[in-house]
Predict the structure.
Amino acid sequence: MLSVPHLDREFDYLVTPEQSDDAQPGVRVRVRFHGRLVDAFVLERRNDTDHQGKLGWLDRVVSAEPVLTPEIRRLVEAVAARYAGTRPDVLRLAVPARHARVEKEPTALAALPVVAPVDLAGWEVYSRGGQFLTALAESRAARAVWQVLPGEQWAERFAEAAAQTVATGRSALAIVPDQRDLDALHQATVGRIDEHCVVALSAGLGPAARYRRWLAALRGSARVVIGTRSAGFAPVADLGLVLVWSDADDSLAEPRAPYPHAREVAMLRAHQARCAALIGGYSRTAEAQALISSGWAHDIVAPRPVVRARTPRVVALDDTGYADERDPAARTARLPSIALRTARSALEAGAPVLVQVPRRGYVPSLACGRCRTIARCRHCTGPLALVERGGGAACRWCGRVDPALRCARCGSDSVRAVIVGARRTAEELGRAFPGTPVVTSAGDAIVAEVAARPALVVATPGAEPSAAGGYGAALLLDTWALLGRQDLRAAEDALWRWMSAAALVRSRGADGLGGTVTIVAESSLPTVQSLIRWDPVGHAGSELAARAEVGLPPSVHIAALDGTADAVAALLEEARLPEGAELLGPVDLPAGARRPAGIAGDVAVTRMLVRVARADGLQLAAALRGAVGVLSARQTHEPVRVQIDPLHIG
């Protein structure tokens, strides 16, 4: 496979009689190209060629295993066309590296799986939930977005949908954000379907184990495949259902070119295979809501009385003037007394309390105590942070320690915390609740589950442990750090993180004395109101309408072009953009965005946005894809990174 964009096309080679039996479409081969051996796939066998010149010979067939199936090839081409990428880049995501020893191992013959009967009671709580499962039993291509209730055993419901599909003789594919979700879904699935028919794919398996399971799907012995984002390309035969859990999670966005999102790959695959599809989550993205608005998918939601009964009570900091009178500092304190009282009540009732903070570490960001200038390293200008109590400030980029801080702007030696991390929060809570165990779950030290006894659990978003029987209360702190980001998805992302934590709290109960979620934020904010009312559908609808009004995805398609000013200008000059395409910029590369590969660190990088109507998305991608190939052949400019509908525009 050639990673150079202008060589993203087919090449003809001659096949010897000895190679003919093995050199079938889909197998891996080695060919000589421009004087060196490169890896390739056989796409087609023909008796003629339109090449004008002498053809080279196939060097060798690496393996007779047809790893690139026709279905996956069509998906690869569709993803490359959707994201203005090259097929070799997509193939690296779709087909894992070969492991020769594993490939020679015999694979068990595919047998009819034993599937436990599916009880529809869990789905019938939701409007259209039972109808969706009935459609799966009839092998119909039903597509839906499922709004999951707090406390719901989502993995059990996904497993039931997969079992309903497998019972019809077809296969299911499930995509989840991380290993914890994968383990939960795998455990639920093998409880309903024979374990030998279920495989889990993840990067942590290692090359041999992952390739062994991938081959099980390719050879037809696996009827259910569960995996993280790259599993969307798994070679599942006779696909009947595609499932995606929590599409709001950033982990489902591929960080490598051409930067596809697992949700879009799954929906492309469901469209090509004409099979059923389900997107589920505690919150909802504007993209998922757009599928509902367009009629491509149906809504699976619970009636409002059920929602009210199943959700915890949510209280914002300024919910009542009475609270303000009793706690005058409630609007400004990080741990106001109303939140501490909620936590104390839950602990006295014998339940654990969840405390969500947006950052890990001790004090991950410092600023001058006088002029509020962010404290930065003298050597590399990286942000300074406190790694432990009483220690010096250390740079988060180069690791150098600065024992004597002094503001470069005003000369003051006083500092203040801009953001308080999980470890510092745990320390503060330990002093506020002496004798109560404090558990920290963040970064590489993630706790999977806590017992149903009094404890304070401090966790960052996505690292919240589950609690047996649910948490008695949850405190959502430093909410401004999520809502205040200058990002297209700041509100959507904040609501997803809050709801994911709040969903672990016990329901309010019939007497109103159940679980409580206290969010330290202004209750008048629309995103906070959506949490209080537990209305992610309404929030997603508002987000979709607001983005349509100002011309942002998913109502339009936007391409972000990152590179030097000359290279971006040359690309746009070469591209035949759709009529009506709007150019926005150029601007400096947004803070936090990675620099494009191949550009020196001292060279200025700019970003240009190209906006087109939604109907012109494929035309925009094709124009940019062709222009990138032309500039690649000329080799007169630095490479330009092209991202279609990037997750974070800036």
Q: What stands out?
A: The first strand starts at residue 13 and ends at 14. DSSP finds 21 helices and 28 strands in the chain.
